[in-house]
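Morning. Coffee machine broken again, so started the prediction first thing and wrote up yesterday's gels while waiting. Chain of 505 residues, entered below exactly as on the submission form.
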Amino acid sequence: MQQLLINLRRIGLVVAVALVSLFVAGGDAQAVELEFNPTATVSTDNPVSGANADTVITTDFPAGGSIFSSVLTFIPGSFGLGECAAGNPAGVTAACADVAIPNGAVVGKVASDTTLGLINGPCTQSLHPTWDMMDATTDMSQTVTFHDDPGDADDVGEQFEDADGNGLADGVDKYPEYLTRLLRNEAYDPLDPGASTPLQPIQRTYGQANVADDDVSLQFATFPPGTKINGTQTDPAWGFMSVLVIQDTGDPGRVLATSTITDFCAPNHGVTTLYGISRDNGATAANEGGHKYVTFPAPGPTGSIILASSEADADDDGLENTLDTCPFEGNNDGWNPRSDSHTGDNDEDGIPNICDPSPDSANNDHDGDGFVNRGDNCPLMSNENQSDVDRDDLGDVCEAAAGAPHDPGVPGETVSAIIQWGAAFTAPFQGDTDCNGTVTAVDSLFTLRYVAGIEPFAGCVFVGGDANCDGAVNSVDALAMLRFVAGLPVNQQEPCTNPGDEIPA
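Came back before lunch.
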């Protein structure tokens, strides 16, 4: 899979979702339209201006349709990232968005109902992995590789290890070197690397989990408004661009290794929680909790878009290249890689009869290159390096052999969609730490929890918790809230708003 994958770390409250088909793969009269119908919803219990509240994002890629190949998600510039103030996109830099947050701070969680094909089997296995997402360095001067060092005996990829024993995977406190090829202003050209420049993120998160006995990483990289990525110029009005990368997928310099996971497909259901305030990472000696990570914008409406693309389908048979082991011949026998039926694949080896050299004699690795048929981007022609320069999931040797119109340097066409989302934020109230619009003894309790470092923290503790406006949230503020609840006078210094009153923008 080519991967600038969907960024589930989107921020805001979705009140409307629209799907627009921009292009449908065409062809002759026998072409089958590739289905691509993603949906997304985003919600927060606390749509309050200035809040640092948790956000829950749900995405669905329905059964029978293509899984995503790339999704760019845009966060309005009115949001604040990390310790950077909201409403000032020009002031959002790596210094306040990333460096001000300690590496390893837990800033979110991803839970997925994922459909996989395992060890050359059909793409029908449903697994439910979760990833704890940590703030990760954006310093590109110290890098780490994805794959294992040949000199190691542990067979664990370098980014998954903790070489310095600080409790953090090296993918957190070092920058994965494949990102310098994968995320560029123009697409990386292996023959002329200097023709493009690596993009510098302003924020990055990293998580890893074991899925079907493989270490699997997720990363979210965020860039300034108007960033040009791999030749695509984005509109500054769309806001910050955030990209999710799974593993090193899409890396033009990728050295593919064999894996128990041979296919990734729909249906896929993901639930991502982005923490507005960081939480402590129990694996480290430090306490990384209590840092702002997302700050909601000024009161009023806002919104943005997601640009999503399907996988490509070279022969227009309705099966994306990642699943199709006969990617140039069509699918006249009705083979379905998302089914256990094996219709059209007599020997059940993952290559349908229409292009299987021995359709009645199973061979799970027809070309003998070490990659099983379903996990091979060119299953009938040996290609141990699995080279795929255009990242369309068709091995270069196969595309070259197929001839026109296929070109190993030109990616296939995809189906694209726009998902629109909008949000409306309300004004905060002085002393209202739980963002519910009123001041009660509960707000005092949440303030004391923050002072004591007891997580999770209330989403409005920073915007409403400083009840006496002295620039700090402490037990004195909790006392002021209790005095207000008890009907006792609270002496405020001008221009500090009284508890229970709206805080001016």
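Residues 122 and 340 are 6 Å apart (CA to CA). Going to sketch it on the whiteboard this afternoon.
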